[in-house]
Specification:
alpha+beta, five-stranded mixed sheet, 10 helices, 27% strand, Quinoprot_gluc/sorb_DH_b-prop, C-type cytochrome
Length: 579
């Protein structure tokens, strides 16, 4: 054979090989999932691997076109509030990790956002939105940090999540200052303020010019109102509209015990999945969505008020998710790796919440809502589960991990961050997309019967029916939602009562805290907490003595009870130090 024929023969063989390789299933280019999928349960043929572990309290994340991952942290690690991750050898694992963002700790950090838009990394803190130009080839941006938006610092619902449309606009969530705009926040029987003045600057979405710097809230336009805290927010480029998941209000039984049972308080109100058009009104604080009745209901604080805004003028949700699941991120899938049924559908990360006590906590999952024939489904699927780990016993223990942020890589992989330890999973599909069938979802559908996913049964799951101690009944009504059944708090917003010198020490200080409430910052066991504890002076001296006795003797190592006359002394201003 002539050398020319040999040359063309080799060229033909190479061409055929390239065509074959290109036509092969893309799974050959994807890394292998971990043997145990990083602890996750997923639909058949989906796999997961852990990209990094323990990078800090990770919140939202974004993935660049080259696969670099950028994560916003709740608190500083290595004096920085952001972390950048690179997989240098393409095995799916992050092997280059760098922390950056040297803004002042007292001003920055907080549970906030991370997005990539128009060549910039945008990230927000509790007092500002910043941006840095991405430096090609460099993991950590070298450009100057610019202030895009500056706003006031406040202690409730501080997450400033971001979304960007196709016309150069940036959308920012401004959460409410209170739980439901009561005259005395989170205080039983306190009526609602009317009109609610918070709505002027809070509890809504504001629109800004994404290309301008040094803006204030006054430079923006209020795009939507009546949204208590829309942390999970994303622009849908298919429908060309904004979508939000709102966190519903808390503690209906504790605040209105004669109107709502513990079971109703655990179930309601819905976490709402909403399409938000300009001028939309979600109804907060005057209304909430009841997913059991499938309708909006007047909030108890406003039952006797002649409301100017009528229910017919409000935006209704696509789905009313179970109460207190805490939706914290939303992502519309536009990649090509997953089967076609996932195209343009909504992935939602439910952080999980503790406001269901005495019933089991719920959430701690990533859900999926299909987009079919131009509409979102009215039902949801469990896409990723297993975050709760083995420490979650009968629905009452802490979750090992809490799914927080969602982002898509350039190859269509889905990334999920964890806010408790800072783990990041990469979820990939290794099956034949054309052979996908809904039978692959059957095991995930079965998981809906698990304690942390199903709706709690009104009688069987109600632990309070089995409580014998009156102090524990009072604790169960007024304290357990924040401080948890074991008295150890949630490790983030609400401090522990078990093992706390606030509880085991000076009884006068403890009684005053119940009577007068506390406003942060408060240091407990060396950690600072900024949330508000409402005053409980509506409780009788006898009831305060009972609940504090329960806390001191049952949640601690029997440091002695509190007597009714001791509470009376403190209430009447005749107290002296009591240990």
């Amino acid at each position: 054979m002539s050398s020319l024929k040999i040359y063309f023969s080799k060229l033909l063989w190479i061409s055929i090989t390239l065509v074959f390789l290109t036509g092969c299933d893309q799974e050959s280019n994807l890394p292998e999932g971990d043997i145990d999928n990083g602890g996750l349960f997923l639909p058949d043929r989906f796999e997961a691997l852990v990209v990094v572990d323990s990078i800090g309290n990770a919140r939202h994340l974004a993935v660049n076109d080259n696969g670099d991952i950028y994560v916003k942290l709740t608190s500083a690690k290595q004096d920085s509030g952001n972390v950048a991750i690179r997989d240098t050898n393409r095995d799916g694992k992050g092997d280059e990790i760098a922390y950056f963002g040297d803004y002042p700790a007292e001003e920055g950090y907080g549970p906030t956002s991370m997005r990539i838009y128009n060549g910039y990394i945008f990230y927000s803190t509790k007092d500002a939105v910043y941006r840095q130009k991405i430096t090609p080839g460099t993991l950590v941006p070298k450009s100057k940090r610019e202030v895009v938006l500056k706003y006031e610092i406040y202690t409730s619902h501080i997450a400033k999540t971001l979304a960007f449309d196709d016309d150069g606009n940036m959308y920012v969530n401004f959460g409410s200052l209170t739980d439901n705009c009561q005259e005395e926040d989170r205080t039983p029987l306190s009526p609602g303020q009317y009109p609610c003045l918070e709505l002027e600057k809070h509890a809504g979405i504001w629109k800004f010019d994404a290309d301008k710097i040094n803006q204030t809230q006054q430079d923006g336009v209020r795009y939507a109102t009546g949204l208590r805290d829309g942390i999970a927010m994303d622009w849908n480029h298919t429908t060309n509209s904004l979508f939000v998941l709102e966190h519903g209000r808390d503690d209906m039984h504790r605040i209105w015990p004669s109107l709502y049972s513990e079971w109703e308080s655990a179930m309601l109100p819905a976490e709402e999945f909403l399409e938000i058009k300009e001028g939309a009104n979600g109804g907060w604080p005057y209304y909430y969505y009841d997913q059991i009745q499938n309708k909006r209901v007047v909030s108890p604080e406003y039952r006797d008020v002649d409301l100017e805004v009528k229910v017919s003028e409000l935006t209704n949700p696509i789905i009313g998710f179970p109460g207190h699941w805490a939706p914290n991120d939303l992502f519309f899938y536009t990649g090509n790796q997953f089967p076609d049924r996932y195209k343009n559908g909504a992935f939602i990360a439910f952080h999980g919440g503790g406001r269901r006590a005495p019933y089991p906590t719920g959430g701690f999952v990533v859900c999926f809502v299909p987009y079919i024939n131009g509409e979102f489904s009215k039902s949801f699927e469990i896409f990723a589960d297993g975050f709760i780990g083995e420490s979650y016993k009968d629905g009452m223990g802490p979750a090992e991990y809490r799914p927080m942020g969602l982002a898509m890589g350039p190859d269509g992989s889905l990334y999920v961050s964890d806010s408790r330890k800072g783990k990041i999973w990469r979820i990939i599909y290794r099956g034949d997309k054309d052979d996908f069938s809904e039978s692959q979802l059957s095991k995930m559908e079965e998981r809906k019967a698990l304690t942390h996913i199903r709706d709690p049964h009104e009688i069987n799951d109600n632990l309070s029916y089995r409580l014998a101690d009156e102090g524990q009944r009072i604790y169960n009504t007024y304290c357990i939602a924040c401080h948890q059944a074991d008295g150890k708090g949630d490790g983030s917003r609400y401090p522990p009562l078990a093992g706390s010198d606030w509880v085991t020490g000076d009884k006068t200080r403890l009684i005053k805290a119940v009577l007068e409430g506390l406003e942060g910052p408060v240091t407990v066991n060396g950690k600072t907490y900024d949330d508000v504890m409402p005053k409980m002076d509506f409780l009788s001296d006898e009831d305060i003595a009972k609940v504090l006795t329960y806390i001191r003797m049952n949640l601690n190592e029997n440091v002695g009870g509190v007597q009714e006359r001791e509470v009376a002394r403190v209430r009447n201003g005749t107290q002296e130090e009591q240990h």
